[in-house]
Amino acid sequence: MKAQYSNKVMSSMLAFVDHKILLKGEAYENYGSLFYKTETQLYEPTYETWSAPFKQMVCDQSITGANIFTGINIDGDTAASGGIGTSGIAFFNHHQGQVFFDSPATITTASGNYAIKDFNTYLTSEAEEELLFNTKIQLRPKTTQTEVGLAPEVQTYPAIYIKDNGGGNTPWAFGGMDLTTVSVRAVILGDSAFRLDAACSILKDLAYSQVALLEPEDLPFNAAGGCTGVYDYTAIAASKSSFFDIANVSVSKYIENRANYQNLNKDVFSALVDFDLTNVRTPRE
User: Fold this and answer.
1) Alpha helix (H) ranges present in the chain?
2) For the chain, what are the domain ranges?
3) pLDDT (tens digit, 9 = 90+) per residue, 176-200?
């Protein structure tokens, strides 16, 4: 099925929020680590996968100072996407912190340098209660004590979950023009009150911003999430002529009532940020 307006808005909002948190908050840390062979496979054809002990990596080339992961050191030789020798690299997945080999690789040690986000970003359709109380999330490792790579299904926090909270169309002008409103909620899970307040402040200041409406072909990622080119959000957004507006932003915090929720991880500092996104369209054309 082709991507519709709501699909494009959600992916555009995810990219926008991720970019602003990284840019305004300098919310990343440059790091280096070993990579570890990962047994769990999610994609066909089956690739051999090696994973870092952290996720997510910064992929956005417009974030000045972030060490973008573009090559992995394999037994002393640096390999970029495309591979060296018989160790062919299919692609890098920065979102999962993984390197995919298109054939079994003979590797003794693998390592790389990269930037890890202070806040991971995810699209979700889960209810807030599921994210806050029932979803198993792990605090991002802070040291190299983790001796295995993270599996693809593992989600780590601090994190920002973006979800579609509904919306609608109202008449705007003759000729079938409507004002389309999409309500988006960001569920923020932080590891400290400082980081939570900083993220909320950045998102609150996005009110009245214009957000570039991205098309699927604007993003250099394949179906498995692998980066197949250069991802520069600033350059991509500047090239677009279609936008939607953030008409309103409101922030509320679960932290005030955390004593009433015995299942809530006491180390998680949480907040909700609601956005009203508007755009004048002709949806029936």
Assistant:
1) 5-25, 128-129, 193-204, 233-238
2) 5-281
3) 999 999 999 999 988 889 999 999 9
Cα separation, 90 vs 67, whole angstroms: 21
Q: Would you say the C-alpha torsion 31, 36, 40, 42 has a positive or negative sign?
A: positive
- Answer whether 116's CB lies under 8 Å from 79's CB: no
112-139 pLDDT, tens digit per residue, is 999 999 999 999 887 766 666 555 455 5
Question: What is the distance between the alpha carbons of residues 109 and 127, in angstroms, rounded to a whole number?
Answer: 41
Q: What predicted TM-score, i.e. pTM, was given to this entire model?
A: 0.86
Helix/strand/coil percent split, the chain, to 5: 20, 40, 40
Over residues 16-49, the pLDDT tens digits come to 999 999 999 999 999 999 998 887 555 555 678 8
HEC readout, 19-74: HHHHHHHCCEEEEEEEEEEECCCCCCCCCEEEECCCCCECCCCCCCCCCCCCEEEE
Distance of alpha carbon 230 from alpha carbon 211, whole angstroms? 20
Among residues 4, 27, 31, which one has the least CA distance to residue 192?
A: 27
* 8 A C-beta contact, residue 276 and residue 245: no
What is the per-residue pLDDT across 131-167, written as a single tens digit (0 to 9) for each? 665 554 555 555 444 455 565 556 677 899 999 999 9
Give the separation between CA 205 and CA 235, rounded to whole angstroms.
Answer: 22
